[in-house]
Design goal:
The protein is an alpha+beta fold and 288 residues long. The chain has helices spanning 64-75, 98-113, 120-127, 134-139, 175-180, 192-200, 204-210, 216-222, 225-236, 257-270, 282-287; strands spanning 2-18, 24-44, 48-52, 81-87, 143-147, 151-154, 163-168, 212-213, 240-243, 250-254, 273-278. α1 (64-75) packs parallel to α2 (98-113) and α6 (192-200) packs antiparallel against α7 (204-210).
Length: 288
């Protein structure tokens, strides 16, 4: 069985407060994008076997796909195992939810393979204990996301015309250090409600005007290339540029796909990862 695991970007991310359990209360708007990992999964007699096309991803019990498969096998007393191969295209330490996307894909795949009859809500309830972004990645719909990532409120009528350039420098960002270095009192706090309304109204310029990420400043202190990428994008004529998640990837927004085609070779030569993509709309793919 083949399944795609779609990456995400944060159009806006606000760190609201630090919780008593050590996590941070977040309020953000997340959107799935066309960039994806491709996962092949098949039943085997027993055990969990994972292979990938990169040495950067662990293939043992540390892997989020392993954790999801193991949890499902135990919960439903599945009498066989699974063999998983993941073609990784989403870079790690990028703030694009690559691990959670893969975990969510395993939920959906095993639900189908083993006829588990889990609803999306069931998968989200199990998934949030394994990875904070798994609930969002199960649904793959633009949403206002709260808590530590488990509270989803989908944004209706969201289908604005937008082309994206995603660029990641070689160095990644430690999410833990990023949060540790954050001063919530003095940090930038984007207006999530205003961004939500802009998306609902299909107001592209409104979305661009509301781009913001509380974590961007501390991440730039660790990886200065994030600022360099943003500067390059804006100098080339992109309408907006923002770091996704805790970084270190940056996305540039434009309504001119030819602009991306023109500058893509520059970014591919200068940085470790660069790709052209768009916001992903599941209903469009089903119709197509």
């Amino acid at each position: 069985m083949k399944i795609r695991a779609y990456a995400k970007i944060n159009l806006a991310l606000d760190v609201v407060s630090e919780r008593e359990d050590g996590y941070h209360e977040l309020n953000m708007i997340m959107a799935p994008i066309g960039l994806h990992d491709l996962i092949l999964i098949d039943p085997i007699e027993k055990g969990i076997e994972i292979t990938t096309n990169t040495y950067r991803v662990p293939t043992d019990e540390r892997n989020i796909m392993y954790k999801v498969a193991d949890a499902l096998i135990k919960k439903f007393d599945i009498q066989s195992g699974v063999r998983i191969h993941c073609y990784k295209h989403i870079p790690s330490q990028a703030g694009m939810g690559g691990g959670s996307a893969d975990g969510a894909a395993i939920f959906r795949a095993m639900n189908s393979l083993f006829h588990l009859r889990m609803s999306y809500q069931d998968m989200c309830e199990m998934g949030k204990e394994i990875g904070a972004d798994i609930p969002f990645c199960v649904w793959n719909r633009i949403a206002v996301v709260g808590g530590i990532g488990e509270n989803l409120h989908f944004i209706d009528r969201s289908c604005f015309n937008c082309h994206l350039l995603i660029v990641k420098p070689k160095k990644g960002v430690s999410t833990k250090k990023c949060f540790d270095d954050l001063d919530i009192e003095t940090a930038v706090h984007p207006d999530i409600d205003l961004m939500k309304h802009a998306i609902e109204k299909n107001d592209y310029q409104g979305v661009v005007d509301c781009l913001g990420n509380t974590l961007e400043a501390p991440s730039i202190k660790m990886v200065q290339d994030i600022q360099s990428i943003k500067d390059d994008m804006m100098n080339f004529g992109f309408d907006g540029a923002l770091m996704s998640g805790s970084g270190s990837s940056v996305f540039g927004m434009t309504q001119d796909p030819e602009l991306i085609d023109k500058v893509l070779p520059y970014f591919k030569k200068k940085y470790s990862f660069a790709i052209k993509t768009q916001i992903y709309y599941p209903e469009k793919r089903k119709k197509g």
